[in-house]
Write a structure and sequence with these properties.
CATH topology: Beta Polymerase, domain 2
Distance between the termini: 22 Å
Shape: rod-shaped
Mean pLDDT: 83
Strand content: 5-15%
CATH architecture: 2-Layer Sandwich
Number of helices: 11
Helix content: 55-70%
Number of domains: 1
Largest sheet: 7 strands, mixed
């Protein structure tokens, strides 16, 4: 579905929501810049991409297919096709969900494609409504703006993962349960997912910042290097979270071992108390005729006194040894990877759009 179209003419006139005839006319002009954004691309949209823009059918298939493709970049001479990955903030999940942004970058056009709502794209579109300078510098700079916003919106999720790591480490030191182990494993899966999507993008940004492609002007290379630096920072933070998750897992296993020792202590206490009592009950449960204590008037109460004395004596000894400890149960902490929307680029645009609809 074609979400929006923006066109900055050679005379500086800015237009939105172009018709198909206007898009064809804009593509035929030598000057100006056209941006077309597709969301939830259908087969019909794929036919439009192939017939109107004459994109390669393999690139069009990557846009139409709902499955996630690895980051890549292909050079088709007069334009390049690149796939980048960001975090899918439109869903809430215990594991980080990613979303891809496909870009066709030509001399006078940029076509973006994504199958999920992206705050980053909406933020760039909202910025263009008040300031068209993003399009005045050419297609390569507009593409940089889209990639930069996509990468910047990964950082709030990294910060959220860091907070979750700290909470898990604290809980692992206390009284961890099965949910603690599940949280650690989910965190490790999220770290791997970000690692597998962010690392290949570093090579893509490195190629774009070296001037390998003709559609990227020399003066725009420094901006792509800046995005490359952001990816390096994200990967460093992600590795720190991975180390924290490994430490939390080690702490959890140590805590479980300590809890097993505590269980053995409880069994030892129970054995130390009940074994003498079992011996006493076994002795006086025998059926011998000559047991003088059986005919004593206060024998029953004496045996009860011995039982109480042995029990209290054993409990006192174990208490002084420090075997009895009372711990406050840890507070449950929510661990979904949703982040505060106000921290995302494009949140203001999304909020304003919802207000208009309401």
């Amino acid at each position: 579905m074609m979400r929006s179209t923006c066109y900055l003419g050679p005379d500086g006139r800015f237009e939105q929501d172009l018709s198909l005839e206007q898009i064809r006319a804009a593509l035929g002009r030598s000057g100006g810049l056209l941006w077309v954004d597709f969301c939830e691309t259908s087969e019909e949209d794929g036919s439009l991409l192939a017939e109107l823009f004459h994109f390669h059918h393999l690139a069009v298939e990557d846009c139409v297919e709902a499955q996630i493709h690895p980051p890549k970049i292909d050079d088709y001479g007069d334009h390049i096709f690149a796939i980048f990955h960001g975090v899918n903030h439109s869903v809430e999940s215990d594991i980080v969900e990613t979303a891809e942004l496909a870009l066709f970058i030509g001399n006078n056009f940029v076509v973006s494609n994504h199958n999920f709502h992206l705050y980053s794209v909406e933020g760039v579109r909202y910025q263009l409504e008040t300031d068209t300078r993003l399009m005045e510098h050419g297609a390569d700079f507009l593409a940089y703006s889209l990639i930069d916003a996509l990468v910047d919106n990964v950082l709030p999720t990294i910060d959220r993962m860091s907070d979750i790591t700290e909470s898990i480490e604290e809980e692992s030191l206390g009284k961890p349960g099965q949910d603690t182990l599940e949280s650690i494993l989910r965190l490790k899966r999220s770290v791997r997912r970000i690692h597998h999507t962010m690392v290949p993008q570093r090579e893509l940004l490195n190629r774009l910042s070296r001037g390998e492609f003709a559609v990227v002007k020399k003066e725009s290379l420094v901006f792509y290097r800046d995005v490359y630096d952001h990816l390096v920072r994200i990967e460093d933070l992600n590795l720190s979270i991975r180390d924290g998750a490994d430490n939390a897992l080690t702490t959890y296993l140590s805590s479980v071992a300590n809890r097993q020792n505590e269980t053995m202590k409880v069994l030892a206490v129970a054995g130390a108390i009940f074994l003498p009592l079992t011996l006493l009950a076994g002795i006086y449960g025998m059926n011998f005729d000559y047991m003088p204590e059986l005919h004593w008037r206060w024998a029953y109460f004496a045996v009860l006194g011995v039982v109480v004395t042995v029990t209290l004596g054993a409990l006192t000894v174990f208490w002084r040894l420090g075997w009895f400890r009372f711990r406050r149960p840890p507070a449950k902490i929510a661990r979904t990877f949703s982040v505060e929307r106000v921290r995302l680029r494009g949140h203001l645009a999304h909020a304003a759009k919802r207000q208009v609809k309401d």
